[in-house]
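Issue: copy button drops trailing tokens. Both records pasted manually instead:
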Amino acid sequence: MAFTTTMLSWSVIEFGGLMKGELQNAKSAIRWATDYLLKATSHPNTIYVQVGDANKDHACWERPEDMDTPRSVFKIDQNNPGSDVAAETAAALASASLVFKKSDATYSKLLISRAIKVFQFADKYRGAYSNGLKPDVCPFYCSYSGYQDELLWGAAWLHKATKKPTYLDYIQVNGQTLGASESDNTFGWDNKHVGARVLLSKAFLVQKVHSLHDYKGHADNFICSIIPGVPSSSSQYTPGGLLFKMSDSNMQYVTSTSFLLLTYAKYLTSSHSAVKCGGTSVTAKRLRAIAKKQVDYLLGENPLKMSYMVGYGPKYPERIHHRASSLPSISSHPEKIPCQAGFSNLNSESPNPNILVGAVVGGPDEHDMFPDQRSDYEQSEPATYINAPLVGTLAYLAHSSGQL
């Protein structure tokens, strides 16, 4: 949820000026989340990170209106740290503070002051949240990449939001130990290294913060690993041209990478720079073309002619792994559907009765195939962290093609 909020905020920060009538909707979505995150962080050195017993929730297939599983509450604190979830929450609050800076200065100040405290807690009491909460959050929401990436990412957002030299010093002192130059090139809810590199490269490229010079190199390395056909490329693409990182919710890497490509292209353009991948010079225009191709694929330009955004285009996933979408609505079926009874809907071949318009699912496999089966959560489950990076990307692409 915090990553979703950070990516929505970054979308508005970079491309909000292009959103026209949708800007207010984006800001409302961010505020809905930050109101919650403010409540979850209202006690010092404590963050409430999960509501609900994940094992018992997953053992039921029922509508939100019928849910009767325990609403257990799980927290991190000084004795049970969680630098990953805490620093990501700090990033969400700090990035959102920039979104509301002009329209609601009081709210913006509340967000940034809370972000500072939450980051201090994340840094002082270090540890991965799924160590202490393992039986409650794993295997569903484990932190696989550790917490170092979130500390770098949180510090990068606090530097951007506060302009305080303390965060720049923190990044310079801790950057390498927090993985600034690692060669990982996967950006998603669990690993933020690449996002932090691109964000910090802006400070060097656009704001001329020379001490962050190395981050241009780190960001370039990421770009060169994504570009098809250059010697340093290490990314897999499907025969139809989709970036393929892993079988589980692959589309989140497509939307997040497309966002980074467009954002980095913006920074390169404003600083009159390019990326050198060996002997190849890669321009901002090339990055935009790659991002556009990924989004075109997502929206239906692919071998199956399938839009992976539900409700968009003539053909889209009809059996998505989503309880409320797959079960009859309260208006059509007022009686309670108990915990186990819903599984007949999960296993049915019928299309979902309720269309979750706009949701983006996990997407096709490495061969461009998509079975459209409700039980196949790896390919058929939608998630807010898949949609969030797409918001800024679509704003840019709609504007550049004259639709906004």
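Record 2 (pasted manually too):
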Amino acid sequence: MELGSLVSAVRSNRVLTGNEVSPAVIIIKDGKIQQILSCSNFTEDVGCEVLDVGDSLVMPGIVDCHVHVNEPGRTSWEGFWTATRAAAAGGVTTIVDMPLNSIPPTTTLRNFQEKLKEATGKCFVDVAFWGGVVPGNQLELRPMIQAGVAGFKCFLIHSGVDEFPHVAEFDLHTAMKQLQGTGSVLLFHAEMDVHPTTEKIGGDPSHYSTFLQSRPDIMETEAIRTVTELCLQYRVRCHIVHLSSAKALKLIQKARQAGAPLTVETTHHYLSLCAENIPLGATQFKCCPPIRGSANQEQLWSALKTGQIDMVVSDHSPCTPDLKKLESGDFTQAWGGISSLQFGLPLFWSSASKRDFQLADVVRLMSRNPAYLSSLGHLKGSLAPGFDADLVIWDPETGFQIQEEGIHHRNKLTPYLGFTLQGVVRATILRGQLVYKDGNFCSEPLGNHLFICQKTNQAQL
């Protein structure tokens, strides 16, 4: 079957529907899943294009709702063409682009329109967009909602780029008032300067421990305390991005029990990497919040198991190699961000399968819940009639090694280079079209821009 062609049906001995894996045929019409039949009930129509994938597993495409594409303005870091090809190669059928690291940032309606123009004709998977909350832009929020952004992101600490300043308490109150009644969601980078803890700490900057001491858990817990109070006060949907510290989980749980519409994600790097194993000067491991210790990591895994953490995303945040300061190995000066968009599914499964997670958990944490957060839960993230025919076809038991020549994002620097993982993505189908197969891509980008209608999609997890 040629890349880019429409697939009428996918047959596999292993199709994941709900919690069950069984032989089935997925019938696709007009880009949607029409029905799912047992193999015995399927009669092949003349001219019906059936993709038989044998024993490969078929499940909903991954929805990665935390991706920094960086275009326009920083396309030397990443761009829609390269990021969405990497997504397709990883079985990711939808990404949601973050509002910062592009120039201009997505903080006004005009800037959003500029981003859409830049993204047109470059996307190999479907793309939705977050807007941003910065000081003074509260009157831009509702126009951006009407234009179709999925929600908004803000920082409670310096974002790393000057054109996306962090908000103060006053800005949060004005933004929350604008968002009330809209169904939209406010995402928080939940770290906050807490003096004197975050005053400059001495130590060898090539030691990861020096950097880790400069971003202690209390920065997250105090920020999350602020988020929970705002969430309860305004009853606006709130979401904590890239939770790294398990110490904040009690605060989150308490707020939810009090009725806060609050969700939380963690990332592949907090689940796959731990502070004790980061080599001297290996700045490709730097991110914010930081990768913490192995005991903390196990607590994050436990929270995923019990449903305290709702989803796992990449926080794909690439840069050019020079910004990682590899020559000096200075963690204090290096850009903080990890590239992992292409490898999220095998990264998660390699660790999760050893902790008795099931394939249905993968769908819940990496497809369905991210789709609901982004108000796409009626279209994406589930294998059921009426949903977009977005499928990942993969072999969960097959191992492979991450090598530079197989990386499709623009800059190949990643802490996962050389890792051996479980789970090879064989093919990716986007709205019934075969966009990736065995290392090859369709010649033309077939992804759509996704615009959110909040009035009809006020989804809760």
